[in-house]
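Today's session is about reading a structure prediction critically. Students often jump straight to the picture, but the first step is always the sequence itself: look for stretches that repeat, for charged clusters, for runs of hydrophobic residues. Only then move on to the predicted structure, which in these notes is written as discrete structure tokens rather than atom positions. Here is the chain we will use throughout the hour.
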Amino acid sequence: MRTNELENAVMDLYDAGRSRDEIAAALQVSPHTVRSVLGYMRVGRDDIAFGPQETGKATQKLIAAIAQHHPERSRQ
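Below is the predicted structure for this chain, in token form.
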């Protein structure tokens, strides 16, 4: 399953009221994977709720962190 498909499936089941363990069993992934997806999606939803300026600031911080810790992944 591709990453975006997994994220969508996790969120669909979560929004339907399924527990993390039920989601993990239904999708045959580890509970850790489900927790990671839910955490990641929650952060994104919170960023969007604060508006475009905050989303832009969060993106800039992420790009700066990638440049610092993984310079091979950033454009120079």
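Discussion point for the tutorial: Residues 3-73 form a domain with the Arc Repressor Mutant, subunit A fold (CATH 1.10.10).
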